[in-house]
């Protein structure tokens, strides 16, 4: 029976098998308000470049570091970045990622996010138990 369900799932999209479920609506707690304007209007060409600015800057820094010190230096730095990114606070608390800023050399810089912050990380804290259950896949 499970084999038939998997064949059916692969061939026909059925709402019962989807991840979001049949009767699940917009979850304002996790996703915020939807904006029709963002779906209708084309995005600005520089938006993608600005989104990937840090990634492009890291790649350029790794290339320079590799040319100066050899292949071991960027590999060591990438391992440190990966280790620091794994350390997080609980899902309902904002994490400042101070160790990542220190590794990148941004710990002494004051940027837009330091003053106005990201709108998706507002000061309104969600219900801790619900957010932990969602992260653990219990909901």
From TrEMBL:
Keywords: Chaperone. The keyword Chaperone applies. It comes from the Eukaryota. Transmembrane segments: none annotated. InterPro entries: Ump1 (IPR008012). One of its GO terms (cellular component) is nucleus. GO terms for biological process: proteasome assembly. Belongs to the POMP/UMP1 family. PANTHER family: PROTEASOME MATURATION PROTEIN (PTHR12828:SF3), PROTEASOME MATURATION PROTEIN UMP1 (PTHR12828). This is POMP protein. It comes from Turnix velox. The gene is Pomp.
């Amino acid at each position: 029976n499970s084999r038939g369900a998997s064949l059916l799932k692969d061939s026909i999209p059925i709402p019962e098998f989807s991840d979001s479920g049949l009767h699940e609506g917009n979850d304002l707690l996790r996703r915020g308000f939807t904006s029709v304007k963002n779906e209708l209007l084309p995005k600005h060409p520089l938006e993608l470049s600005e989104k990937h600015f840090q990634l492009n800057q890291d790649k350029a820094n790794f290339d320079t570091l590799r040319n100066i010190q050899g292949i071991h230096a960027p590999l060591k730095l990438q391992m440190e970045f990966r280790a620091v990114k794994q350390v997080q606070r609980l899902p309902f608390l904002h994490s400042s990622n101070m160790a990542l800023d220190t590794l990148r050399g941004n710990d002494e810089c004051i940027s837009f996010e330091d003053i106005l912050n990201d709108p998706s990380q507002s000061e309104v804290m969600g219900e801790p138990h619900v957010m932990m259950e969602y992260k653990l896949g219990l909901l």
